Amino acid sequence: MQTQEFGLDAKPLARIGLGCMGMSWLYQESHRDDVESIRVIRSAIDSGVTLFDSANIYGNGHNERILGRAVGRRAGQVLVATKAGLVVDDERRRLLHRDARPTAVQNSVRASLKRLDLPVIDLLYLHRVDPEVPLEETWSAMAELVQDGLVRNLGLSEVTREQAERAHAQHPVAAIQSELSLWTRDPLGLIPDRTHPAAWHRSGDNLLDWCAQAGAVFVPFAPLGRGYLTATLPTTFEDSDFRSGNERFTPVARAANEKLLGTIRTIAKTHASSPAQVALAWVLAQGEHVVPIPGTKQLRYLRENLQAADLVLNEDEMRALDGLPAPSGARY
Q1: pLDDT digits (tens, 9 = 90+) for 30-53
Q2: How far apart are CA 115 and CA 62, in angstroms?
Q3: Which residues, other chains included, contact 90 with Cβ-Cβ below 8 Å and sequence gap of 6+?
Q4: pLDDT value at 273 more than 90
Q5: Based on C-alpha coordinates, what's the Rg of the chain?
Q6: Which residues are catalytic?
Q7: In this predicted structure, what is the pLDDT of residue 106?
Q8: Which of 15, 22, 126, 250 has the highest Cβ tally under 10 A?
């Protein structure tokens, strides 16, 4: 795959990464298979993937452990990203709280290093800004981890442009991670209009533009709409699956959101590709600094996702996708 330079150490970064969360957390948890997940991660490395995304809370540490086992001695070939700032209260019910106190974040990172079995974390995100702790205090503590050689680059997850600017003024923000897909466009400054269903409202908080100006990478998570944009999802989910209680996946919302899939399917057919590949190609077209991290537990979907890097959409196709209506249902 095509690569670009990344972060403070200019490490090569392939255009598509791998989100590892679903291997341990949130989706179809009864299908957890560590052996197969490790196989997928290692196959991704063989295929040229360089960015692997995890977090301390995914499976309450489980995800970092399997990622560390899978990467092993090949750590020098990849960029391992993890997060701090959230704490699991109840894994089964997915109850969390924010804790971005300096000591808590630093202790969390040291625990992550042990689970990953790595001497240094390539990219550490603040998972969520803690309203009880000034961002500058948390960011300063994270910068100390860089100075101590435990972390190489710092990133932010689900932040505002104003928060990104405050952090960047103190220590370089190498990456921002947030949800971006054909049906979630908040980082482009577009949010669903509550007063006009299916319409987009411009908020002006364009994080992609800020990243381009700051020299940061933008990392979209859930670029396939938590699986919806692949057009392959079952009609129901097990109770432990996040989507079973999410507004966008109710029967009524899915019927309304079918409008999105019609256009995607048509374009996919033109290219003899899959809806997932079209959805990823649209995300990639948002800028060369955009590196999506679609997640999967299956080799066939890994291969399909990576092929999206070679799919080029023409102007008419981009215009059609840009013009898709806003989805029915809130993302959280």
Answers
A1: 788 999 999 999 999 999 999 999
A2: 8
A3: none
A4: yes
A5: 19
A6: 58
A7: 97
A8: 126
A 10 A CB-CB count for 73 gives 6
Identify the band that residue 8 occupies on the pLDDT scale cut at 50, 70 and 90: low
| Residue 4, token pair as written in the block | 């670009």
Span 4-16, average pLDDT: 77
CA distance 176 to 329: 25
Q: Which residue has the higher pLDDT, 65 or 31?
A: 65
Instruction: Write the CA distances from 234 to 72, 75, 103, 249, integer angstroms.
Output: 35, 36, 43, 11
What confidence category does residue 82 fall into, taking pLDDT thresholds of 50, 70 and 90? very high
Phi, psi of 330 (to 5 degrees): -75, 155
CATH class of 3-224+286-311: alpha beta
Cα separation, 135 vs 130, in Å, equals: 7
Cα dihedral 299→305→308→309 (10° resolution):
-90
Average pLDDT over residues 150-159: 97
CB 306 within 8 A of CB 1: yes
Domain residue ranges of the chain, discontinuous segments joined by +: 3-224+286-311
Given a contact cutoff of 8 angstroms between Cβ atoms, the answer to whether 260 and 327 are in contact is yes
